[in-house]
Amino acid sequence: MTHPYINKICRRYFYILIIVGVIFVNFTPSPAFAVRPDSLKDTLSDSRPSVASNHEIVLNLSGTTTFIAGETVVITFNASFDLTTLTMTDADFQNGATDETLQSGACGATDTIRFIYFGGESVSFMACDAYTAEAAGTAITIQLGSNAAGGTTRIVNPTAAVYTLTVAGTHGDDSQDTILVITAAVTVSATIDEVLTLTVAAVIAGSCTTTGGTTVTSTSTTIPYGTIATEAFYDVCQQLTVATNAGGGYTVTVYTVAGLDSGANAFAVGSGDGGATLTLPNTWATATNNGYALCMDDTTGNAAATANAGWDTAAEECGGAGQKFELIADLSGSQTPSTIMSSAAGVSSDVSLAGWRISADAAQAAGAYTGTADYITTGTF
Q1: What is the pTM of this model?
Q2: CATH 2.60.40.10, the chain: domain bounds
């Protein structure tokens, strides 16, 4: 038989253990979980295989996340990308509206960002001890290549394929991936009195919606214009289809690598009927106003209308009563590629026709005119 005094002591210790357990449960801090950044995108200046390209990476931090001293942002490319020649001078780091100062030494008590490259496919940016933090939820923009102030070295693209780029680090948000699409360029060629060939998706002449010119049926690799007359319009349509699950949508831009030339002779760019620019479409109904340009026509979705207000009505798109044509950026002239399709959200299938128009001046030098057009598709994941 247990002594009453021993029972009393046992009960007292039992009650103490219960109280301690309640205190522990109620006052133990809950683990903190990181959140997903609002968005991430990487815009390439050139998407062709084996060509050097600039990268502009924009990481939109979540609304509650602030990048502070001691934290890092780490960018990791697929192993197919070669970063070995990249240096600090080829990088810029902007947090919100502040263009931060980069340095490569030990951090110390400085209001700077340390650039770190240990080799391989990753570059890291660390906020030093005296770093002045920006507001929460800012967008961090990182430029890698000759687009950085003082930059000279671009990153060479691998072979044509789809690649993943990851942004991680200790900045408070979860790591996030985005997709880089490396695609072969579209070949554009023109021969006065001979042939104009484009490598595009097939569109038969009767389905090309431009009006006012001679339309020609294309295949997936050629558009055989044959002999073309001067002072006359010739039109060819390319079908562009975009599908993406990027939450922030996408953009498609276009440019020519070095215009349309035959040796030292350049094909005149023109300006439509006088008002077309690289960003502003305008009418082009007079064939003696020579040059080359493109119009857009939305088939499924409204990608072209979203990309440019100049195409936001049916009358302004290819085939409309006031169809408008936009000039094409020339990369060799350091012109910014024009946006011809876009969406603010993911799409299952945006389909638009790009109507390429050309008109040769009677005095245009004879010869084989060739060029290369490049479409760059950028998703915001």
Answers
A1: 0.69
A2: 39-182
